[in-house]
Amino acid sequence: MTGTTAAASQATIRRIIAPLALAQFICSFAGSNMNVMINDMSRDLGTTVQGIQVSITLFLLTMAALMIPMGKLTDNLGRKRSFVIGLIVYGVGALVTAAAPGLWAVILGNSLLEGVGTAMLIPPVYILTTICLPDIPTRAVAFGIISGMGGVGAAAGPLIGGLITTAISWRAAFLFQALVIVVILLLSRSLTDPLPADPKRPFDTVGAILSALGLFVLVMGILAADTSVPLMIALVIAGVAILIGFLLWVRRRERTGRAPLLSTSLFRVRVSNLALITQNLQWVILMGTSFTVSAYLQVVRGYNAIQTGVIFTAATIGLLLTSLLAGRLARRFSQRGLIVTGFVLCVPGVVLLIWLVAGTTGGWPFVPGLFLIGAGLGLMLTPSVNVVQSAFPERVQGEISGLSRSVSNLGSTFGTAIAGTILVANLQRGGEAYGIAMAVVAVLGATGLIAALLLPRTAAAPAGRRRRGGPGERRTTDRMGGLWSWFTSWRSSSRRARTSRPGPGRPVASCAPTGVG
Predict the structure, then answer these.
(1) S-S: 323 plus which of 227, 273, 304, 378, CB 3.0-4.6 Å?
(2) How far is 22 from 27, CA to CA, in rounded Å?
(3) Quick one: pLDDT band at residue 313, thresholds 50, 70, 90?
(4) DSSP string spanning 30-85?
């Protein structure tokens, strides 16, 4: 009977996960694959590197700005319907971009339509997984697969995009995305929505407009840094003012008993706030590094799309290796330890990308740094969101998932906007501009490490450790954390595992989506 139940559970996971994980993959892929097409697209469309950077940033910004509103609308539209509509909008955007005669069409198709489509389909990915898989261990496996596909999509985007661009055309890369969307639509026919749609559910339209407008103006201010400093300052101040107005509006709705776009109670949990910071800065590192290194290789050193993509294989390999070990490591070490270790790998990786690359002409100096960054991200992408999700009860998982997705996409947006603007504004200075941009990424990564160190040592402790050890052992493990603990205690842990029988333990409450994209 147990075997039959397990088989049915695995079949349910496969039926649900296939379309949802593939959707997460293609959205993450879309966020990074354009980085290796900078030269090809700018030549073909008669635009500049800055124009391509703006289109990439606007795509990421559209996702970030609309993720929370679209997450709320899933209750009105229905989870599956929102997912399918998002796929269709995304697919249309990919086709428009593939046929684009100029930059304006890329912004319409990729930045807006694909961005809106992604914002519509990503929240249902995590909400459907949560409500269709009520068993926490099974759900944890499902989210591990989804988050892994998201990480692979982001890391492999440059290589796959480079292969397609060099072998055929950059336009074929968007046709590839449209083809994947068709496959997802076919697979999603087996999806069911356990909860009925509620078209009469109130929606905070003013809050949605204020939040999206504030983020848009703020990021446009960052992008304006290379053209006009006064304009940059004005836009940044205006964006911050609009976001403050959004917060005041939310508090007013809460005081009057009306449902706000985003509950302020989500920001009253210190553990969650710190984990959200680490989550945001992880994507700053990933997308800031991806755009800066790609633009430097293509524009300054003259590499083509496939050469750039091959160099980024180092990051993909690092991410895959640690992602494959993520489940095993999560049973042995605390979530905090994995997050800290991830930043400990990423920050030196960025430093290596500055130090080894300076004064060299080949591609090999990029490999060690990119590998460390990929390995670090593979370790910590899922634990960061795990800590966020585990800090809240089941009834607000949908809302906190939307916030988590928005924070991740904001990290991608800030990484591309900040580091990319520093590089693009000083392209004539070549290696010096590259070094400054990467130094900024390193500082932001160090900030993420500080936030990770401030996490409580008991934050989302691993279920396996809870079962095997007592309170004293748990504190010791959390204090050591990460790879150092791995190297110093693996022999004693293995001996205990062979000689002791696990007692009853509490599973970690986990709905652990990660990153987009």
Answers:
(1) 378
(2) 9
(3) confident
(4) HHHGGGGGHHHHHHHHT--HHHHHHHHHHHHHHHHHHHHHHHHHHHHH-HHHHHHH
CB atoms within 10 A of CB 21: 24
CA distance 296 to 435: 10
Give the residue from 320, 322, 323, 313 showing the smallest Cα distance to 290.
313
- Cα separation, 184 vs 180, in Å, equals 6
> pLDDT for 438-478, tens place per residue?
999 999 999 999 999 998 876 655 444 443 333 333 333 33
For the chain, the distance separating the N- and C-terminal CA atoms, rounded to the nearest angstrom, is 40
Among the listed residues 14, 324, 290, the one whose alpha carbon sits nearest the alpha carbon of residue 148: 324
The amino acid at 232: M
Which tokens go with 111?
């930045």
How many angstroms separate the CA atoms of 259 and 204, rounded? 7
Cα separation, 218 vs 413, whole angstroms: 11
Query: How confident is the model over 396-432, as pLDDT tens digits?
Result: 766 777 788 788 878 888 888 888 788 776 766 767 7
Angle among Cα 310, 314, 316 to the nearest 5 degrees reads: 95
Tell me which amino acid residue 20 is: L
- Chain-centre distance for alpha carbon 454: 22
452-147-329 Cα angle (round to 5): 55
Query: Does residue 496 register a pLDDT over 70?
Result: no
Q: What letter represents residue 404's amino acid?
A: S
Radius of gyration of the chain (CA): 22
The 3-class SS string of 152-191 reads: HHHHHHHHHHHHHHHHCCHHHHHHHHHHHHHHHHHHHHHC
The span from the CA of 367 to the CA of 49, in Å, is 24
Task: Compute the distance between CA of residue 297 and CA of residue 400 in angstroms, rounded to an integer.
Answer: 38
Return the closest-CA partner of residue 442 out of 369, 367, 338.
369
Separation of alpha carbons 100 and 180, rounded Å: 19
pLDDT reading at 492 higher than 60: no
Contact (CB, 8 A) for 326 and 379 = yes
Of 121, 452, 117, 428, the C-alpha closest to 271 is: 452
Q: Encoding tokens for residue 50?
A: 């800055």
Residue-by-residue DSSP string for 182-224: HHHHHHGGG---SS---TTS---HHHHHHHHHHHHHHHHHHHG
Read off the amino acid at residue 235. Answer: L
Torsion angle, alpha carbons of 427, 372, 288, 53, to 10: 60
Note the pLDDT tens digit of each residue in 9-32: 566 667 778 888 899 888 888 877
What would the mean pLDDT of 330-358 be, rounded to a whole number?
A: 88
CA dist 422 and 440 (Å) reads 9
Residue from 85, 96, 106 nearest 23 by CA? 85
Q: How confident is the model at residue 482 (pLDDT cuts 50, 70, 90)?
A: very low
